[in-house]
Amino acid sequence: MRILIVEDEPFIQDDLQDALLSLGHEVVAVCESYEEVETLLSSNPTIDLAFLDIQLASDLDGIDVAHLLKNHSVKQLVFLSSLSDDRTLKRVKQIPIAGYLVKPFKLADIKTTLALLPTVSEEPKSSIDFLVKDGAEYFKVKASDILYVEACDNYIKLHTANKKWMLNMTMKAAQEKLPSTDFLRAHRSFIVNIHFVDRLGPNYLVIGKEEIPVNEEFKKGFQERFERF
Hints:
- By secondary structure, the protein is α/β, with parallel strands linked by helices.
- It has helices at residues 10-22, 34-41, 62-71, 86-92, 107-115, 171-177, 216-228; strands spanning 2-6, 26-31, 49-53, 76-81, 99-102, 129-134, 137-142, 146-152, 155-160, 164-167, 183-187, 190-193, 199-200, 204-207, 210-213.
- The chain folds into two domains: 2-115, Response regulator (Rossmann fold, 3-Layer(aba) Sandwich); 125-228, CATH 2.40.50.1020.
- Strands 2-1-3-4-5 form a five-stranded parallel β-sheet, with helices on both faces. Strands 10-9-8-12-11 form a five-stranded antiparallel β-sheet. Strands 13-14-15 form a three-stranded antiparallel β-sheet, with no helix packed on it.
- The two termini are 17 Å apart.
């Protein structure tokens, strides 16, 4: 999932981001205020879930941020708070949320919260196609047939078992189109279909005869996902 963190305490930011990456999720951004979230949303990012600290050090708190995100079609929200008093809970009940975590929380609490999230329907991977051109003809390349995606300047290269296809698309757009249940960023220049990964080394992975680098920033999350397969 593509997750937004709204939290103004640095050590909680770091702990939550590390936990989410280790569980194989992508952290879209870490914001500390309503204004930062508003600026982020102006670029129309894809956000599946947001973790929101209720008590932000500004006039507008996490509940105000929740209303803002709901208006931008962010469907799943999890509140974070050191407060569990009746007044706070009453305000939280005014907004449909997916979960509530009381600080301090542990990795197990985050895992349980994510496991209990309502299922958000995702476009079936078999129906996700990339339209590519070969000479005068156009072809559909199914996401399920892609071994990995490689960045090539302003283009991407789709690697399948039988052919490589060049496409005028950014890596960011490709990652948003591909189902996150099957594809994971291994490197700034590579997105891989985890079903085709044969081996995982200390800083690389192998698909068939191809060795692909794994960046340190993606390593923990990738290793966790690979071990679950």
